[in-house]
Specification:
The strands form eleven sheets. Strands 7-8-6-5-18-17 form a six-stranded mixed β-sheet, with no helix packed on it. A six-stranded mixed β-sheet has the order 9-10-11-12-16-15, with helices on one face. Helix 9 packs antiparallel against helix 10, helix 10 crosses helix 11 and helix 19 packs across helix 21. It starts with a strand and ends with a helix. It contains 32 helices and 36 strands. Among the domains are: about 240 residues, 4-Layer Sandwich (Deoxyribonuclease I, Chain A), CATH 3.60.10.10; about 70 residues, no CATH class; about 150 residues, Alpha-Beta Plaits (2-Layer Sandwich), CATH 3.30.70; about 180 residues, no CATH class. Strand 13 and strand 14 form a beta hairpin. InterPro entries: DNA/RNA_pol_sf (IPR043502), Endo/exonu/phosph_ase_sf (IPR036691), Endo/exonuclease/phosphatase (IPR005135), RT_dom (IPR000477). One of its GO terms (molecular function) is RNA-directed DNA polymerase activity. This is Putative reverse transcriptase.
Length: about 1050
C-alpha cells in the first residue's frame, strides 16, 4: 500500500461497516497541504453536522513511500463506548458546552484500568479535553512513565503509584490527580496514611479552597477494617485543616459491591439497609463518612446496578455540586466503572498564562541582505567614543538591521500536529455536543457520536504522522527531534503559587521577585575591609604570573566567535547565532570596542546586564529555595570574555594546582576519581583504611569577595590596568529574573563571579587555588568548589593529623569570607576491616555526620569500594530510560533512530566515568550487558528473522546496528584513557607517575608494555589505574606515540 490507511468501525452504525482513511505522504509541504485538503468528511445536505452512514472520509491522490496501517476497534470497545451515552437522570454536559464554564470547576473521574498501553490515545484525549481537574484510579503507572507523556505541560500532576508501602502487590493499582496549571494547587499538607493508595490535593480558588481526594481500595483489601479505619483517619486529618468556607470532594473506587444505593426523585442516594450486605468493613466505612459529615452523591450505577465508585462531598459543597455521566471518555470505558463528571459552582482564579516574548525567526533571516547592509556600515566612529556610548551605538545599529532583515517568529500551533481540517472537525464535534446536550434525542446523539469519531480518528492519524515526521527529523532537524523527546521526558513549568519563607506569590511578576530575593541572598551582605584583604592574601605568592595589557586582533575575535554556542536569544537582543552567521561583517566593530574597553579600563555597562531563569533541583516544587538560577549573558560580552580568558589562562596555567580537576582543560571528574579511588584501594590492599572528609561550600561562586580576588590577582603579577578592568567587570552587574515576558526588580551583586560566563570559572579557580598553600599535597583533591581531604589511617595520630587539615580549611574559609555548609559535609572511612578506627571529626565544633555511602562527582562510593551500589543505581536508571524509549518510540521503525535515542539516554548512563567503576565480577558484567540486550531485541523487532526463536549471536546483532558490546567498549575506554595520559591529551601527573613503562636496554623476550606492581587482594588487582593498565597491555600493539588517542580508539573499535 502506498499510503496511510486506517479503518475504524463507526459506533453509530448497526452493521459492521468499515470506514477507511487513506492518506498519502508527499515529500514537500505543498503536497502535504493539498493532501490534507482532500481528507474530507461527507455530510448530507440537510445540515452541516449530519454525517452519512457511509464512508466517513475519502481521499484520492498519488502516494509515495507510504505505509499501510489498518486499525479496527473491536466490538467490545465499540459497545462500551456506546453504553456511556445512555440517558441518565441528569443531563449530560461537557465542560466546553457550559456558558459559564469559566466560573465553574469541572472535575473528571474514571477508573481507567491501566494507562501504560494507552499512553498516546489518552494523551490526545487529554490535550483536547479542557477539564480543570482529572482524577484517575487504577492507573498502573510506575516511575518509568513520566507524567508529561500523558498530560504534557497543561497539568500539574500528583501521583501515588502502587509500591511496597501501600500494597501487597507490585503491579496494578495507583491513583492520580491532575490539576490545570492555571489553578493554584499543591499536595494537601494534612498527615494522611501512606499505607493506602490515596491522594489528597488542595486547590486554592478565588474565594475558597477545595481539598480533592482520590482513593482506591483493591478487592483483596475491601474487607480489611484496618485499611478502612486508616482511610477514615486520613479523611479526618484533611477535614481538620479545612476553613469555614472550604470544600472537600472525595472520589474513589471502594469496591463495596455489597452496598445497594437507592435514590428517591432528586434526593441524595442512600444505602438500602434491607437489600445490602453490610460487612464490618462496610459498617466502618459508612460510620466514618457520617462521622465527618460526608454525603455520597453518585447515583450512576454500573452494568450490575451497583455503585463501586463513590463521590463524597462535605456539607459546604452540597449545593454547589452536580454530577453526571461524562459525554466523552478519556480512555476506554470499563462497564463496571461509569465515567463521571462533577461540576462545582466555584469561582476559578483568573490567572493568565505566561506568554512567550515576541522573538525573531533567525532561521528565515535574509543573511545575504544583512551581510551587505553591515558591510556598508562605516564603523570608524566607534574609535572616538567612550566604550559605553560605542556599545550603545553598536547595539542600536545592529538591532535596526535585524528588524529589517529578520522576520518575527509566528505563533506555535497547538497542537503541533494540527491543521485546518482538524480544527474544522473539532468545531463540528463541539456544535454536535451542544445540540445533543440541549435535545438529548437519539438523532442528535448519533450526530455527536459520528462527529466525535471523525475527529478522534483524524486526530490520531495526524499525531501518528507527526511522530513519524519527528523520526525523520533526526537527520534533517536534530534540534526539533530532541525537543520532541524532551517534552516527553521532562516536566516543565512552575507551580501557580510559590513561597519563600513566609512570602507567597501567584502571578508571574510576584514569582519573579521571590526568585530575585532568593538569588540575591546568595551574595555576601557586605564587602571586605582592608584588614581582611591583607590577611586573606598574606600567603598568596608574589609575581608568579605575568600579564600586561595587550592589543586584541581580528583573528582573536574570529576565533572566539567560532567557539560560541549557537543560540537565538540574548539579553541585548543580539544572539550568538546571528554573530556566527555574520562574523565577517562584525569583526571590525567588535575589535574596536574590545580594544577601547581595555584601553579605558572599563567593561561596557550594557554587557553587565544579565537575565536569570529558575531551574528546579529537588524536593518541593513550590518552594523557591529548591531552585537554582541559570544566567544568560550578552553574546558579545561572551566573545570578549573568551579572549581575556585565553590570555589569563595562558599566564596562570602553571600556578593552578595539579590537584584541581574542575574547569581545567584535559582534566575531568574521571581523572579526579581515578586518582582518589586508586589511592584508597592501594592502601586498603595494604591493610589500611582511608578517612575522607567531604566538604561543601555555601554558594561558593556567589560569595567570592571582589576585594580579595582583585588583591590576589594583583599580588600574583597582573598589571594594574587589567586589575582596574577586572574590577569594572565584576562590580555593579545588574541582574533580573525572567519568567516568560515578566521580569523581577533589578538587583546587583555585592560579591561573586558571573555565573554562566566564560571568565568566571577561571577567576574562581584562581581564588580557591590559594587554599593549596594551607593544605599539603597528597591529601587534597579539588573539583571547582568540591574539596575532599583524605589520609591513610594507621593510628589515632593520623586521625588527629586529618583533623588538623580540616581546621586549616576552616581557618582559610574564615579569612577568605567563604562559608562551609556543615550540614552537607560528611566523613567516610574506606576500609575492609572488622574493627576500623573511628574518630569524631568536627568543623567549627560541630561533629561531622559519618556515612556509609556517598555520591562523589556522579559515582556512588561505599565503604568497601566495591561499587555495587553504583552498579545497581546505573542499571536502575538505565532501565528506566530504556522503558521510556520503548513507550515514546512505538511508532518508530528506523533502527538507527532508536540507536541514537539509546546512545544518548541509556548508554551514556552506563558509561559515565566507566574507567573508575569498571566491573570485574561476572554477575555485574552480565546485568549491565542485559540492558543493551533488551534494546537490541526491541530495535530489531521488525526484521524478518528466519527463526525468531533462534536469533543470531548477540554480537552479530550488535553489528547490525553498528554498535559494540558494552564490555568491549569498557575495555576500549580503559585502554584509550591510558593512551591519553601517555600522549598528554589528558593531564594528570599523579596518574602518569603510576604508569610504569617497561623499557629494557635490549629485547630479551615479549614483555608487557606497562609493568604491574604486586597486589595482595582481588580488589587490589582491580584498582582503576592498575585495571586500565592491564586493558592497555592487551592492545598496546595498536598504540603509537606519534599518533593520536582518537586514531588508537578507532583501531580498537574496528
Amino acid at each position: 500500500c502506498n499510503g496511510y490507511s486506517e479503518a475504524v468501525d463507526s459506533p453509530a452504525l448497526s452493521g459492521n461497516a468499515t470506514h477507511s482513511i487513506c492518506l498519502a505522504e508527499a515529500s514537500d509541504d505543498t503536497a502535504r497541504h493539498s493532501k490534507d485538503a482532500n481528507f474530507q468528511a461527507h455530510t448530507p445536505s440537510s445540515g452541516p453536522n449530519n454525517v452519512l452512514p457511509g464512508k466517513l472520509f475519502s481521499l484520492s491522490g498519488n502516494t509515495r513511500n507510504g505505509i499501510c496501517l489498518v486499525e479496527a476497534l473491536d466490538d467490545t470497545a465499540r459497545n462500551s463506548r456506546d453504553n456511556h451515552f445512555q440517558t441518565t437522570h441528569n443531563s449530560i454536559l461537557h465542560p466546553a458546552v457550559a456558558d459559564d464554564a469559566r466560573e465553574k470547576l469541572t472535575v473528571y473521574y474514571q477508573n481507567v484500568r491501566g494507562l501504560r498501553t494507552k499512553i498516546d490515545d489518552v494523551y490526545l484525549a487529554i490535550s483536547d479535553s479542557g477539564y480543570d481537574v482529572i482524577v484517575l484510579t487504577e492507573t498502573w503507572l510506575n516511575d518509568q512513565i513520566c507524567s508529561s507523556q500523558l498530560f504534557g505541560n497543561a497539568y500539574s500532576v500528583y501521583r501515588n503509584d502502587r509500591n511496597t508501602l501501600n500494597s501487597r502487590k507490585s503491579r496494578g493499582g495507583g491513583v492520580l490527580i491532575a490539576v490545570a496549571t492555571a489553578i493554584n494547587s499543591c499536595i494537601d499538607p494534612s498527615p494522611v496514611a501512606s499505607s493506602l493508595e490515596q491522594l489528597w490535593v488542595r486547590l486554592k480558588l478565588a474565594d475558597s479552597a477545595v481539598s480533592i481526594g482520590v482513593f482506591y481500595l483493591p478487592p483483596d483489601r475491601k474487607a480489611d477494617v484496618t485499611s478502612i479505619n486508616n482511610h477514615i483517619e486520613s479523611i479526618g486529618a484533611v477535614h481538620n485543616n479545612l476553613g469555614p468556607n472550604d470544600h472537600a470532594l472525595l472520589l474513589g473506587d471502594y469496591n463495596q459491591s455489597g452496598l445497594v444505593w437507592t435514590r428517591a426523585d432528586d434526593e441524595v442516594p442512600m444505602v438500602n439497609v434491607l437489600q445490602s450486605e453490610i460487612s464490618s468493613a462496610c459498617a466502618a466505612l459508612l460510620d466514618g463518612f457520617s462521622l465527618h459529615n460526608l454525603r455520597q452523591i453518585n447515583f450512576i450505577s454500573n452494568r450490575n446496578n451497583r455503585l463501586l465508585d463513590l463521590t463524597l462531598v462535605n456539607e459546604n459543597m452540597m449545593e454547589a455540586c452536580s454530577i453526571r455521566e461524562a459525554a466523552e471518555p478519556l480512555s476506554v470505558i470499563d462497564a463496571d466503572h461509569p465515567v463521571l463528571e462533577i461540576e462545582l459552582s466555584l469561582l476559578k482564579p483568573d490567572f493568565s498564562d505566561v506568554a512567550d516574548e515576541p522573538a525573531l525567526n533567525f532561521h528565515k533571516a535574509n543573511y545575504d541582505g544583512l551581510m551587505d547592509a553591515l558591510h556598508q556600515m562605516d564603523w570608524s566612529f566607534l574609535e572616538s567614543l567612550d566604550v559605553d556610548n560605542a556599545v550603545s551605538r553598536f547595539t542600536e545599529v545592529v538591532l535596526n538591521k535585524l528588524a529589517e532583515f529578520v522576520p518575527p517568529r509566528g505563533p506555535i500551533p497547538k497542537p503541533p500536529w494540527g491543521n485546518a481540517r482538524l480544527r474544522h472537525l473539532k468545531r463540528i464535534r463541539s456544535k454536535s455536543l451542544r445540540k445533543y446536550c440541549r435535545s438529548r434525542c437519539p438523532f442528535s446523539k448519533l450526530q455527536f457520536s459520528r462527529a466525535s469519531n471523525n475527529y478522534r480518528i483524524y486526530n490520531r492519524f495526524l499525531y501518528k504522522r507527526y511522530t513519524l515526521r519527528m523520526q525523520d527529523n533526526l537527520r534533517r532537524n536534530p534540534k526539533q527531534f530532541w525537543r520532541f523527546v524532551n517534552t516527553k521526558r521532562k516536566e516543565g513549568g512552575l507551580p501557580v503559587e510559590m513561597f519563600l519563607e513566609n512570602c507567597t506569590g501567584s502571578t508571574a511578576s510576584e514569582k519573579c521577585n521571590l526568585f530575585a530575593s532568593h538569588f540575591e541572598s546568595a551574595f555576601n551582605s557586605s564587602s571586605s575591609s582592608a584588614t581582611q584583604i591583607e590577611q586573606a592574601v598574606r600567603d598568596t605568592p608574589s609575581n608568579v604570573i605575568s600579564l600586561e595589557i595587550f592589543q586584541i586582533t581580528p583573528r582573536q575575535v574570529n576565533s572566539a566567535i567560532e567557539k560560541l554556542k549557537s543560540s537565538s536569544s540574548s539579553p541585548d537582543g543580539i544572539p550568538s547565532c546571528f554573530l556566527k552567521k555574520c562574523s565577517n561583517a562584525l569583526i571590525e566593530p567588535l575589535t574596536t570596542i574590545f580594544n577601547n574597553s581595555l584601553r579605558q579600563c572599563k567593561f561596557p555597562t550594557e554587557w553587565k546586564y544579565s537575565e536569570m531563569f529558575p531551574v528546579y533541583k529537588k524536593k518541593n516544587r513550590r518552594d523557591v529555595a529548591n531552585y537554582r538560577g541559570i544566567t544568560s549573558l550578552c553574546a558579545c560580552s561572551k566573545i570578549f570574555e573568551i579572549i581575556i580568558n585565553n590570555a589569563l589562562f595562558a599566564s596562570c596555567k602553571s600556578y593552578i594546582s595539579p590537584d584541581q580537576h574542575g574547569f581545567y582543560p584535559k582534566r575531568s571528574t574521571c581523572t579526579n576519581l581515578s586518582q582518589f579511588t586508586s589511592f584508597c584501594l592501594r592502601n586498603m590492599d595494604a591493610g589500611k583504611q582511608v578517612d575522607t572528609v567531604y566538604t561543601d561550600f555555601k554558594s561558593a561562586f556567589d560569595r567570592v569577595d571582589h576585594g580579595i580576588l582583585l588583591a590576589r590577582l594583583s599580588k600574583l603579577g597582573i598589571c594594574q590596568e587589567l586589575i582596574s578592568w577586572f574590577e569594572s567587570y565584576l562590580v555593579d552587574r545588574h541582574l533580573v529574573v525572567k519568567i516568560g515576558t515578566d521580569k523581577s526588580r533589578v538587583f546587583t551583586n555585592i560579591s561573586g563571579v558571573p555565573q554562566g560566563s566564560n571568565l568566571g570559572p577561571l577567576l574562581f579557580t584562581i581564588f580557591i587555588n590559594d587554599l593549596t598553600s594551607a593544605l599539603p599535597p597528597g591529601c587534597r583533591l579539588f573539583f571547582a568548589d568540591d574539596v575532599k581531604l583524605y589520609m591513610a589511617i594507621k593510628s589515632i595520630l593520623d586521625c588527629l593529623a586529618l583533623q588538623c587539615l580540616v581546621n586549616r580549611l576552616v581557618e582559610w574559609c574564615s579569612k577568605n569570607l567563604l562559608t562551609l555548609s556543615v550540614q552537607k559535609c560528611c566523613i567516610m572511612s574506606f576500609h575492609r576491616k572488622l574493627l576500623p578506627i573511628t574518630y569524631r571529626y568536627t568543623i567549627a565544633n560541630q561533629v561531622l555526620a559519618r556515612v556509609s555511602e556517598v555520591r562523589d562527582l556522579g559515582v556512588t562510593l561505599d565503604t568497601a569500594l566495591t561499587f555495587h551500589c553504583h552498579h545497581d543505581d546505573i542499571i536502575r536508571r538505565a532501565n528506566r530510560q530504556l522503558g521510556f524509549i520503548f513507550k515514546i518510540a512505538r511508532e518508530f521503525r528506523d533502527p538507527f533512530c532508536l540507536r541514537s535515542l539509546y546512545c544518548a539516554l541509556v548508554r551514556s548512563i552506563l558509561e559515565s566515568n566507566v574507567v573508575v567503576w569498571c566491573p570485574f565480577q561476572t554477575t555485574w558484567i552480565a546485568r549491565i550487558e542485559a540492558v543493551q540486550k533488551k534494546f537490541i531485541r526491541y530495535a530489531l523487532r521488525g526484521l524478518p528473522w528466519r527463526d525468531p526463536l533462534n536469533l543470531p549471536r548477540y554480537e552479530d546483532r550488535c553489528n547490525l546496528l553498528g554498535i559494540q558490546t558494552l564490555s568491549h567498549r569498557r575495555k576500549t575506554a580503559q585502554a584509550v584513557f591510558v593512551a591519553k595520559i601517555l600522549l598528554g591529551e589528558t593531564e594528570s601527573p599523579a596518574i602518569l607517575s603510576q604508569l610504569n613503562v617497561y623499557a629494557p636496554e635490549r629485547t630479551l623476550r615479549q614483555r608487557e608494555f606497562l609493568r604491574m606492581d604486586h597486589r595482595n587482594t582481588v580488589y587490589g588487582l582491580h584498582d582503576p589505574i592498575r585495571f586500565m593498565s592491564r586493558s592497555f597491555n592487551d592492545v598496546y600493539e595498536f598504540f603509537d606515540f606519534n599518533s593520536s588517542a582518537l586514531a588508537f580508539k578507532q583501531s580498537l573499535l574496528s
